[in-house]
Write a structure and sequence with these properties.
Keywords: Signal. By secondary structure, this protein is mostly beta strands. The protein is about 5% helix and about 40% strand. The chain has 2 domains: about 120 residues, Sandwich (Immunoglobulin-like); about 90 residues, Sandwich (Immunoglobulin-like), CATH 2.60.40.
Length: about 230
């Protein structure tokens, strides 16, 4: 299946896609290159008929990974990404029995153990980032890029700007980490991250990360090649 890019998909940081089918990351873990089994959850209210996952560098969606399976709403299927490579970033596309679809770009299947497609409607409370009653939203941000990180920004998905640099007067050298407290009183779980590196030679943006479910996030050298 040939991949069809549409203008505006690059702005998935702040909007749901296609028939208001929202997406949420589930859990967080550090996976090895050989451990990329990934749970695709369907909580849209509609049966998922097809699911595609393609490395971000590819221009083709490839084959339907569900094969002769479907995912009823409220259920999940495990998709295997264990292809022997160390590649972590994939674009995901789900197609549903009512003709709607949802896409998400640059999903790190090594950092999370699953992905949740959920249904949202304009003005519905479900369209807002999930609110968790009391998780510890403290995340260690690791720099494993080989470069010094000079700026780090995080913004909840209901915000339209990145806000202030969290590092302030500090820098984050490679092989070090920064602890960020996301307990700002909002209860928001989904955040976007932006890291800028020495001399402004590179930056990495990651979208829709669930700080309620993860304990750490790592910026890797491979991310620099992708971005």
């Amino acid at each position: 299946m040939e991949r069809r890019f549409s203008t505006g998909l690059a702005s998935l940081a702040r909007v749901s896609v296609a028939s208001f089918l929202g997406v949420v990351f589930l859990g967080a873990m550090t996976a090895t290159a050989a451990d990329k089994d990934y749970d695709i959850h369907n909580n849209t209210g509609v049966t998922m008929q097809y699911f595609y996952a393609s490395p971000v560098a590819s221009d083709d969606w490839g084959d339907d990974r569900l094969g002769n399976r479907v995912i009823q709403s409220g259920y999940y299927e495990t998709i295997r990404f264990s292809d022997g490579s160390a590649f972590c970033f994939y674009d995901l596309r789900a197609e549903f029995e009512d003709g709607s679809y949802a896409e998400q770009r640059s999903v790190d299947v090594c950092q999370a153990d699953g992905f949740n497609f959920r249904y949202t409607t304009p003005g519905d409370a479900a369209a807002a980032p999930p609110v968790s009653p009391g998780p510890d939203r403290v995340v260690n941000i690791y720099n494993d890029t080989g470069l010094t990180m000079i700026y780090f920004y995080s913004s909840s998905q209901d915000m339209t700007t990145w806000g202030a640099d969290i590092l302030g007067d500090q820098v984050l050298n490679s092989d070090n980490y920064l602890t960020v407290d996301f307990n700002d009183g909002s209860g928001a779980c989904l955040y976007d991250f932006k890291a800028v590196f020495e001399d402004n030679i590179a930056e990495i943006e990651r979208f829709g990360l669930d700080v309620c479910a993860m304990e750490s996030y790592t910026f890797r050298q491979l991310d620099l090649l992708i971005d």
